Amino acid sequence: DAAAARAASAACASVAGAPRLANAARSDGLLERLLSHPHASVRAASLRGWADVLDGCDRAARAQHASDSESVRSVVCNDESLREDAEGAFQAAAACAQACLARASTLLEDRDGDVRCASVTFLNGVLRHGLANPRDIAPLLVGRHGDELQKVRDAAADALRETAAKRPQLVALRFSEGFADACASARRYSDEIPLPILKAVGTSYQVCCEGRAARAKALKSALDVFVTPNDLPAKDGDLSNWLGKRAATCRALGSLPFRTADEPLMVIRACARACALDGAALHESLRDASDVSARDAARCGAFSLLCRLKAHIKRRHRLGDARCAAYDGDCDKQLGAIRDDSPLVCGPLFSRSALAAVGTNRGGSVRSSLVVDLGRLLAEEQDDGDLQDRPKKPRGRPPKDQPLKRTSSMEPPKKPRKKVKRKRPKDDSDDSDDDWGPGKN
């Protein structure tokens, strides 16, 4: 494997400064065959080698056009790897990279972690040199934030940060698709998304959505797909995977690093509207049903997740019912300290073993439990006594022109007492001052 990997790297390096060899490699399908090699080390070496070819040819082309001096021209012409025209070599290498773009995108799902990391590096090089549309590659980079390996997540974060610096609005609009892919990738490893992956997904949210308007667009596009559970799969056997992805998305949404208050309030309002309208109507139609279909049970599970997400965000960010009800779509206040940073727990009903029985004949009890769980969450009153906005008491005495308002619980005011001047009683004793003086005994 090591010898084959070195041979692949040498094959990529041989066409670095030779446009004729690069065109021949393209027509012969050299890079496609290397990327389809059975050994993972060969695939990884080919991806990294061709990314280095693009960088080297681009540097040579820039150096050739940077100045017309003889010193720069001599440096370019005397280098053996750049003995031919640098711009022509870059164009030939770029054509080969564009021809293998689809194959490199599929290698993001490869079993080998080194191949996935090399594929992220290759796609980043393609975007850096303007050989692909960021509209198609940005969701793939966001989706790699749900990978199980730390090096793959770090490489995806660096590539996404570089792309977002050039096209911030486009990356923000495409965040929702990559966010769903990241949650689906993380769902493969365990029922609950691990904390490192949750932090990586939060990092992708911060990178893609720098401004307040960008964060609002990204959240709205993600909620439009997540809040309305109308994208049910055609086959009942795929309902378990569908519910599992929604559970992972719910857990990731509950752990996003929000900055201003309008972000969690937007999520709460969307979940509340969906549950109050569609969720309540669905539960009312299934309350007395003896046999619940798999599709209706899956929709009940989706609305249950919305109820859990709403309660989790309210508890996490100290948002009471009064503040959520007063939200009118615009609130730029900064959020305070997070009360509880623990991730959202969806419960045993959304584990793999339970969801696997939703679309089968033996899943009647699970389907009934999903309907009962939705009814309990809809009827449950959230006890947010310490989270509600308590009314503030006015300080000081009320002004004179605004008298106190009497209520039924107040006692009638008492009339003020009049001050009565008491007369001092006369004292006729011998010790009186009138008996003293000259000529008096």
How are the SSEs placed, and which strands pair?
Blueprint lengths: L1 H13 L4 H10 L1 H6 L4 H27 L3 H9 L7 H14 L1 H6 L6 H16 L5 H10 L6 H17 L1 H6 L1 H13 L7 H14 L3 H16 L11 H15 L8 H25 L7 H23 L4 H5 L26 H4 L8 H16 L62
Helix pairs in contact: 1-4, 2-6, 4-6, 4-8, 8-10, 9-10, 9-12, 10-13, 12-13, 12-14, 12-15, 14-16, 15-17, 16-17, 16-20, 17-20
Could you characterize the architecture of this molecule?
There is one protein chain. This protein is mainly alpha-helical and 441 residues long. Helices cover 60% and strands 0% of the residues. Mean pLDDT is 77; it is low at 68-84 and 382-391.
Number of strands: 0
Q: How would a crystallographer describe the biggest sheet?
A: none
Report Rg. 36 Å
Percent strand equals: under 5%
* Class of secondary structure makeup: mainly alpha
- Helix fraction, binned, reads 55-70%
Could you spell the SSE succession in H and E letters?
HHHHHHHHHHHHHHHHHHHH
- Discrete helix count: 20
What does the overall shape look like?
flat
**Cα-to-Cα separation, first versus last residue:** 139 Å
Arithmetic mean pLDDT: 77
Low-confidence stretches: 68-84, 382-391
